[in-house]
Amino acid sequence: MIPVSWYLILSAVLFVLGVAGFLIKRNVITVFMSIELMLNAVNLSFVAFGYMLGDYNAHIFVFFVMVVAAAEAAVGLAIIMLMYHNRKSLNVDDIELLKF
Amino acid sequence: METTTPQLWILPALPLLGAAINGFFGKRQSRAFIGGVACSTVGLAFLYAVYLFFTAGVGDTPRIDYIAPWISAGSFHADFSLYLDPLSMLMTLVVTGVGFLIHVYATEYMAHEDGFYRFFCYLNLFMFFMLTLVLAGNYLLLFVGWEGVGLCSYLLIGFYYLKQSAIIAGKKAFVVNRIGDFGFTLAMLLIIGTAGSLDYGTVFKAFQNAPVENGVGAVTIICLLLMMGACGKSAQVPLYVWLPDAMEGPTPVSALIHAATMVTAGVYMVARSSHLFVKSPVAMEVVAVIGCITCIFAATIGLVQTDIKRVLAYSTVSQLGYMFLGCGVGAFSAGVFHLMTHAFFKALLFLGAGSVITAMHHEQEMGAMGGLRKKIPTTFMTMLLACLAISGIPPFAGFFSKDEILWSAWHNGHPWLWLGGSITAGMTAFYMFRLLFLTFFGEPRSDHAQHAHESPSTMTVPLICLAVLSVIGGWIGVPKALGGSAHFEHFLEPSLARVPVEFSAYARASGSDPIDIPRPNPEPAEPEEPGAERLFSLIAVVIGASGIGLAYYAYVVKPETGQKLSAQFHGAYRVLLNKYYVDELYEVLFLKSTTAVSREVLWHAVDETVIDGAANGVGSTARAMGGFARLMQSGFIRSYAAWVLFGAVGALFYMILQWAK
Description:
Chain A is mainly alpha-helical and 100 residues long. Chain A has helices at residues 4-24, 28-53, 57-87.
């Protein structure tokens, strides 16, 4: 039986990797993937806690998150397509018009 | 006495109807239609006034036509009610009668001006407000008319609204009048405080029973504030400065508003409030002295003016001074009498001047006139009669009224005021005949004068009517001493208060308690002194005649005398020509100082520093804080993410700390 803490540690590692990727990488697709990674890290901790507590609501939450993530992926990829179309660039630092 | 109430509302309603027709529909109508509407409404009002005069039984008790409630607040009530007594009857007749003649005259005088319908709309509106003023049943309604005529005066002075000087003159008239109105408003508040009402009946009754006031008390202050209002409206020192400038308006306006009717509203108001004034010797004295100062002051300025309308304007100011002098010495009926005769001859003088100006192609300088006697004989004859009337030559109208004022001044114990009035009478005769001689005698001094033509009959007929009135208008008030029966005085008696018998004695020996006995109609204690009165009439005539003689000598026999005199007394001449520099003085005292304070203190200091500072301070503070905070909004997504991370870490730490406790 693998203890819950291992799942949580894995979840934390994945989350930190996601955060780090988000902060460090400039390619918008990588940034996007980092977000997905963070979401799934959270999903993992949800499922782990749900298993530990015997509460299946956690699974339902995870499904919700996956559905939303799928929708977000569709929209996000469309935005990225348009961004590339207009700017010929995938660098997030190039999209900085909305500022002071 | 009949019991039906006369339908007084018809009187002001007629000109209002005319103003409405001309104002709303006049633009597309023919000039004949506009003139017809304007003249017929005023003419009908005059006919109705005459009808009322003969049928309404204007007698001891005033007839009150209650129209509608207006203000009702607690115990205070003011209603739309009209009040007909001998005084308002007389004023109504004068206003509508003279007004009608001037309307007829104006249809011709203004025939070629733009804004014909606008002119008659204003003129009719003026008649409406003037009739409201004289017929009002309480001080508040009087004030409505009072402000209304001021408005119309403003509109008509500035009738030529493209002319800068006319606009300025209109504004000046309005502003100076407001100063007086301020006093009037305060007086009304004090009357409410004292008598609890503004209805004439209630107020007069309250004051009739009050004792004569020793020194300065509530009644005196009310009267002085009323006088302040009258000073503004009737162009008395120190608020007379607007009237000469008001000559920028069309000449019929000068005749109607700034000579015959509106400017006499102040006299009317003082006479109307005679029950208040007789209770305050101080206020009476002030009225008389202001009147006397004004009449001398304006007459001296009138001596040297060269613009024909300006001479008449100063003459008007001076004659208004006479009326106040009359009221101030207790001869209210004499003041009102002079008001009436003055309305006739001064309207005539202005209309005659208008006729001269028309003949001279809008030249107003007397220096360019001369020799017009043969060219425009009707105008000359009528103006000659008017000049004789204003100079106080019997049997013309002005003689009787002016003589009565001067006699009252002497008889009621004011020899100095009598002297001032008499000197003014001489000066009046001099400057009026100076005007007449410069305009009509000698050689023509310009091409226009050479080719002048008489005005058409629509202008000359009103002149003739007014000339007839100027001749016979005084006969209704011939005093007993001169073989008359003083009809006028008896007619007005129910409206006007008598000076209490104890008044003059009391005024001389102040300190003794006034005798506090209400006297409904005390008989004059004076013994009849026909001899003395005749002597004083003779003196007045001699003074007037010598003024005329002097003018004849200086401007006809030796026309160069005038220039010699002005050269000899150069300093005095300049002072008079520049109207004692009063306008300049006011400019420095009030305008410059007020604008300086407004600019430096109120604008630059208070407004710019304090108010703008506060408003801008709020804005710039928010802006500075925002300027600092906005730096977080860099546009870089990754920096936002870093902020979120910071926040999350911070929140996490906080939670851990809480948990650790």
